[in-house]
Design a protein that fits this description.
Domain HTH rpiR-type: 4-80
Oligomer: single chain
Number of strands: 5
Strand content: 5-15%
Largest sheet: 5 strands, parallel
CATH topology of the largest domain: Rossmann fold
CATH class of the largest domain: Alpha Beta
CATH superfamily of the largest domain: Glucose-6-phosphate isomerase like protein, domain 1
Number of domains: 2
Organism: Bosea vaviloviae
InterPro entries: Homeodomain-like_sf, HTH_RpiR, RpiR-like, RpiR-like_SIS, SIS_dom, SIS_dom_sf, WH-like_DNA-bd_sf
Order of helices and strands: HHHHHHHHEHEEHEEHH
Keywords: DNA-binding, Transcription, Transcription regulation
Strand order of the largest sheet: 2-1-3-4-5
CATH architecture of the largest domain: 3-Layer(aba) Sandwich
Radius of gyration: 24 Å
Protein name: Transcriptional regulator
Helix content: 55-70%
Amino acid sequence: MDQIGVATALDAQFDDLPPQLQAVARWVLDHPADVALLTTREQARRAGLAPATFTRLAQRLGLPGYDALRTAYAASLRQRPDGFANRATELLERHGDEGDSAIAQDMFAALAEHVRALREPQSVACLERAAALLANARSVFCFGLRSAFPAVYMLDYIRTLIGAESVLADTAGGRGIDALRRIGPGDALFVISVSPYTRLTLQAAAYARDKGAAIVALTDSAHSPLAALADETVLVRTETPSFFHSMTPAFAAVECLAALMTARRGKPALDAIAASEAQLDAFSTFETPRRAKRRPS
């Protein structure tokens, strides 16, 4: 049953539902984005109802539980109109109906839920495998364009701090793709792209694969064209009430990968970090707080 089917069934059965189930049905019909993005407990809190009541409503519709209903709404959210402009139109319409506070709260609730999903055992296992592949690679080439670039930049930056071989293909002057000429067996390509997938990113991954390098992909679907090229895939969710996809979960995953790689590198990482700090200090890179002068007593 999809979102339209759920809404149709609720409309048809509404008058026959007990008062508490009517209250849940009204919440579901009036807050489709919240149903897709928020946990059942958070929805119950906002609606002022018991979580068990949400479960009973789903079962009344023939579903095993409320999570099945949420999944149907989440699938519909992922199938929102194509294009930033169309989704921005939805955002403006909702803003007119519900105002700033509702959108802000739902944005942060969605981000919290996406980051929480990275703690699930399956996601952690994927992160562990990806970190092992990156830690064991001779050199890691980091590639990501547009909104994905800051996250790959972070991984490259941290690898340099811990003394791990890293190449940032940053496309400056249109030459970033040239860095992949040196990629080959024993190397790894760390690559990020989420829908809408950047064509050059997919070409870079296919090229690196043909050259014998391992591919670690961070993307938003097991069925994305990038996942099809990868040896290890880390999945992140990107949907929010906004018109633009979220990269916050990607940053969280990169920070986790960096921590795991550092731990796996051990003593060489500590030595490299100490050398990095010494070099940064030599150039007075960071402003340090001055101690207040003591006044004479």
